[in-house]
């Protein structure tokens, strides 16, 4: 079973639930630089190739002027590089639970299931 997942930085010693809440509220830390995130993801998913994509509307939490990077898939990965090259949000779809755990460990991030975890209720209620 695959899922749509938002990944945010998990600060040391912060419980997963609190890191998730901070991520949803747009207060997540830097995951890494554009190049370091692409390199780490390539190590996990060697088939990954990146391209810049222009979206009709920005995703919630993305900084103004952020460049969206999109991968081929599966899993389909997307992140935004801020003006200074830092990455705070990483999105994945068509990603399996085992891949989610490997990505969390490798990048020291926490996953927010956008189809569960009360995500829709938090955004739209």
Structure description:
This protein has 125 residues and is of the alpha+beta class. It has one domain. Helices cover 30% and strands 30% of the residues. It has four helices and seven strands. The chain has helices spanning 16-24, 34-44, 97-107, 119-124, and strands at 3-9, 32-33, 50-52, 67-71, 76-81, 86-95, 109-113. Strands 1, 2, 3, 4, 5, 6 and 7 form a seven-stranded antiparallel sheet that branches. The protein starts with a strand and ends with a helix.
Number of helices: 4
Q: Give the helix level as a range of percent.
A: 25-40%
Q: How is the main sheet built?
A: 7 strands, antiparallel
Number of domains: 1
Secondary-structure content class: alpha+beta
Straight-line N-to-C gap: 27 Å
| Radius of gyration over C-alpha positions, nearest whole angstrom | 13 Å
Write the H/E string, N to C.
Answer: EHEHEEEEHEH
Are there runs of 5+ residues with pLDDT below 50, and where?
A: 120-125
